[in-house]
Amino acid sequence: MAPILSVRDLRKRYDNGFEALRGVDLDVEEGEILALLGPNGAGKTTLISCACGISTITSGSIRIGGHDVVRDWRAARSLVGLVPQEITLESFEKVRNTVAFSRGLFGKRRDDAAVERVLEQLSLRDKADGTAITLSGGMKRRVLIAKALAHEPRLLFLDEPTAGVDVELRRDMWRVVDDLRRNGVTIILTTHYIEEAEALADRVAVINRGRILLVEEKEALMRRMGRKVLHIDLHHPLSALPERLARFGLQLSEDGRRLAYVYDTKAERTGIATLLAALAEEGITVADLDTEASSLEDIFVDLVQGDTDEEGRARTMAEKAA
């Protein structure tokens, strides 16, 4: 089956010469949730804007449901719903009318039952006759999603959907997103909350400086790139690490009662047995052991930092060559 979204060698260059997207390739399968992660200015919103027809493409192509977003823009756009970062609602319009009007913008005939289904899906039925100005921030976000779903799109872009809401509302929104996926909507989610991607995504794409660094299933990514930390609780505190233990790269806690040892889960040998033997040789008694796996946030930071370092090295070499 062809992907619902297919991006090929996408480039976006502004008049001032800044290249926001630099040869992006990305496929998104129907029915999945893809988390698009990247620091500020990485190109996340620019990529979404190009897919939704908000921003013009410099070169390359985007196809949605098999339709080119430039040549066959009307058909492509009809398959897409967008929930932007900014809350843009008519303050004194009823919620029901706001959602119904959005449906009409896409040329869909009036269908009160369809509007009611969307309101019900997003727990907005009891707010339907209220105005946007009376709603909380979390409810306004729900209305934005309802607007984006009113014309029954197959692909939904959520650009920072939980920005500025508290933890309770954020988790409530997570349930909404999961329900949408269960109803067959493909979702591309941009977020600064790494735990959001960990909780919701099937796959993760990391973008930085306008380039996709990787696209991989979330669980496989964490298995492949994840590190573990072995925490070693000591019977007696240490004032400093013995020199013979320096080769292990241990971190000693401030109170001297705990050691932290980082090891690679993919390595043939973790070095744990050697470390424990070395501790015994130094007369250091172990009270307890526990391990902690690296989070998606750790992996994301490593990827972006590595890309930044590589970019810096390339720039330095170019400057020397010049």
From TrEMBL:
Listed InterPro entries: AAA+_ATPase, ABC_transporter-like_ATP-bd, ABC_transporter-like_CS, ABC_transporter_ATP-binding, P-loop_NTPase
Pfam families tied to this protein: ABC_tran
Classification via CDD domains: ABC_DR_subfamily_A
Residue ranges crossing the lipid bilayer per the database entry: none
Keywords, comma-separated and alphabetical: ATP-binding, Nucleotide-binding, Transport
GO molecular function: ATP binding; ATP hydrolysis activity
Chain ranges of the ABC transporter domain: 5-234
Entry keyword Lipoprotein: no
Gene3D superfamilies assigned: P-loop containing nucleotide triphosphate hydrolases
Protein name per Swiss-Prot or TrEMBL: ABC-type multidrug transport system, ATPase component
The organism of origin for this protein: Rubellimicrobium thermophilum DSM 16684
